[in-house]
Amino acid sequence: MKIQMVLALAAWVINSTTIMAQETIKQTAGRDQLGDFAPKFAELNDDVLFGEVWSRTDKLGLRDRSLVTITSLISQGITDSSLTYHLQTAKQNGITRTEISEIITHIAFYAGWPKAWAAFRQAKEVWAEDVTGEEAKAAFQREMIFPIGEPNTAFAQYFIGQSYLAPVSKEQVPVFNVTFEPGCRNNWHIHRATKGGGQMLIGVAGRGWYQEEGKPAVQILPGTVIHIPAGVKHWHGAAADSWFAHLAFEVEGENTSNEWLEPVSDEEYSKLQ
């Protein structure tokens, strides 16, 4: 009896895990556009192709399914609205601007140069906002009212990646706008004080992280307020896929100082999504 109960429990766990691993894709385009004219085709498109095949994410992830689909469409020379839709879906499923450029370049050698040219025109529109370098910096500056400022060279040794610093106010309460490029974060550190002290952060633009030692990381979005008591080991910085900026307020205290510690390892940081 005990063995049967254990086997039954194991089967339930395996089944539940499989169900949880799947992600049901809901699609209504078939019914929206062809429901009255071709109801069976609409059903097959929405319920079978997307509701069943695309939803088998426990067998093949959405990112890989997008890659297979856009490769197939481009290879056949299909560069109509269906390719645009699947390029948009590929972007949502995690394929980056750099990756789609490399994917289409690779396809060109097997499917043909003209097909790749046509696909690139659509891909450029889909990934138009994903710019890099100075263009990305300028685009991020347009998202917020505070300046990005100058490269944070004075504290560069305590950061992984490029950060920028802009003083907002040096009177009454010192306030700085700190901007991080994607993937940039500061080292673990502690704000020391014999009385009072600490720091307050307010998210300004983009997406970032704050983490105290021994606790899960907390996402920082525009408007998020983080209170950091003196004596608490922590770090903060940008998400891997986003520029990020926060205001940093120095809390008044006695005998205040910063103790900079070890970097946040790539292994630790890569676990954050």
Number of domains: 2
CATH architecture of the largest domain: Sandwich
Gyration radius from CA atoms, angstroms: 25 Å
CATH superfamily of the largest domain: Jelly Rolls
Protein structure class: alpha+beta
DSSP helical segment count: 9
Distance between the termini: 44 Å
Identify the overall geometry.
Answer: elongated
CATH top level label of the largest domain: Mainly Beta
Average pLDDT: 87
CATH topology of the largest domain: Jelly Rolls
**Strand segment count:** 15
SSE blueprint and pairings:
Elements lengths: L1 H20 L7 H6 L4 H16 L7 H14 L5 H12 L4 H15 L1 H14 L6 H9 L8 E2 L7 E2 L2 E7 L5 E6 L4 E2 L2 E4 L2 E2 L2 E8 L1 E5 L5 E3 L4 E4 L5 E5 L5 E7 L2 E2 L2 E4 L5 H5 L3
Antiparallel strand pairs: 1-3, 2-5, 3-4, 4-13, 6-15, 7-14, 8-11, 8-13, 9-10, 9-12
